[in-house]
Amino acid sequence: MAMSHVQPMLLLLASLFFLPVLHGAIDFEYCAKNGNDYGNVTRIEVSPSIGFSENPYITINLFCSASKNIFPGTLVYVTYRSGDFIGFLRTYNLCDVTACNTESVIGSWHQL
């Protein structure tokens, strides 16, 4: 029985299309499992890439949109998960990691 070369070629092309997206994918979920009522996270970037690195520091860029006003002094909790273990990394005051106007609320979106 002769096999068509079209199907394996389509599978190869489809996998090449999705591999760049999956390469930088971060397994992200909300702590409450259903999002937050103040906004949504749209993207997370971690630098350097996840894995072994000589540099003990990482940079986390969080891209989100706010559906409610976020007031100065709001705290951001950074945790990580490895299997069933959840570890706490650090707490940040939002005004310490992004531009913050202390006399008004923070607008519709921010990058940490």
UniProtKB/TrEMBL annotation:
Residue ranges of domain MD-2-related lipid-recognition in the record: 26-101
Q: Which Pfam families does the entry mention?
A: E1_DerP2_DerF2
From the UniProt annotation, give the residues forming the signal peptide.
1-24
Q: Provide the alphabetized UniProt keywords.
A: Signal
The entry's protein name is MD-2-related lipid-recognition domain
Q: What is the lineage of its organism?
A: Eukaryota, Viridiplantae, Streptophyta, Embryophyta, Tracheophyta
Instruction: Fetch the InterPro entries from UniProt.
Output: ML_dom (IPR003172)
The species this protein was found in: Arabidopsis thaliana x Arabidopsis arenosa
Q: Which domain of life is it from?
A: Eukaryota
